[in-house]
């Protein structure tokens, strides 16, 4: 009996679906790309629970008649390719004919479509099998509803993330498609709340205020460079993270190692990767790029990669040079040397006043006494470490991680009803679309920490209350970084509230080279002594380094 056998059709379909459908955002990608290929001018995406419960995509494209609606659910059935010659110059986003049957194999799917007004077809599928076909009255276009994704594939479903994480993947995907096609309308609704509504815009720059807010959009650096038939367009924008460049090739949002490496190399300054985000759209002749190298069409291959790399490098270099401008020359000149402290006074407090460790409205700390729960405060070393003497020797306490631990525990210990400190003048912050969605999803968790946000139009939010002890201006700067940390998952902690508190504390804590007055240093050390874990910050870094007196004398030759 032969050991090699043909797989059942149902197994083949599930394997193929696993290559195309990784998560809800994959479904959104395939359905929206089909809408774009159908000539849609307005696309509506509705999600529930990040797409885990519902994904619905509606468009006003060309639609299909009844016969085509049934054929579209067959594997390798497509209207976008009719010979292998067309594989050498693909101009559509889809071409494999696998999206709809793959999605239908792992979900319950409803397809409503019409090519003529009132003459529509409704097809219902249940995990790969068509259960109902009937006529329906509807305008031209297509609506596809996907529910119970991966319900019968628990092994795949358990690898999905939280609804908030799945939503952010979908938002990032739609943002890239909306940037590559500014002339189309996009509406994204999650749990009956509008995440963004982008009306048609005349060009990319006119679309940015709706995505990034008017203030941030006004500070973008446009990308525009052409070499022969190849062109680079897009924009750069100062960001809280250095790795948020969205890439598109001929309108297709991609993850390309070559383009990513070129972008990071071009954006690398003398102090590391520049804090930039943006969108880079590369347009090349269709025959110069192969999009048939990945099942989900997420990667591409170029016929002349060195030419593409050179084009992108030159475009980014020109944009960065333009962004610096004549008024920014001082930023690239070496800083004047800082005067060295007197040799006889290596441990001293600088005369300049320091930013307070509490909010501007809080009372000033009491007069310094030199006495702390850790010992006698000797001074501040290099504007970073507090030097304390006790009976056993010296302690070097890192002021940043000490303050980070203090703020972290105080945030988690506060009663939410008491922690809110309303702002006299609310602060408006423009965010990335996926981060604005995340902020609204996490309103309750952030409010429990004393940070209250309200949604505004577009992707802006308003800070209406701040935790006591936090500078509102610092919160305005740190909110985008806080959301980026939560989005990337780099903040430590078991619960979402702990991760938010850790990120907020890290970005609000006093920094390296921030001078502290003796009174502020004593106040910080007193608060640290009350911490449950005064030895490590939330990220696990040690707070203090002990230099025993006997070790000091041994090293200096007294023993």
Keywords, please?
Heat Shock Protein 90; formyl-coa transferase, domain 3; elongated; eight-stranded mixed sheet; Ribosomal Protein S5, domain 2; single chain; 559 residues; five-stranded mixed sheet
Task: Walk me through what this model shows.
- The protein has 559 residues and is α+β, with helices and mostly antiparallel strands.
- It contains 19 helices and 25 strands.
- The strands form 6 sheets. It has an 8-stranded mixed β-sheet with strand order 5-4-3-6-2-1-7-8. Strands 9-10-15-11-12 form a 5-stranded mixed β-sheet. A 5-stranded antiparallel β-sheet has the order 18-19-20-21-25.
- Strand 18 (371-372) and strand 19 form a beta hairpin.
- Helix 12 (399-413) crosses helix 17 (496-508) and helix 14 (433-441) crosses helix 16.
- The longest helix is centred in the middle third of the chain and has 20 residues, at 305-324.
What is this structure, in a nutshell?
This protein folds into 3 domains: 9-181, Heat Shock Protein 90; 219-328, Ribosomal Protein S5, domain 2 (2-Layer Sandwich); 345-414 and 467-559, 2-Layer Sandwich (formyl-coa transferase, domain 3).
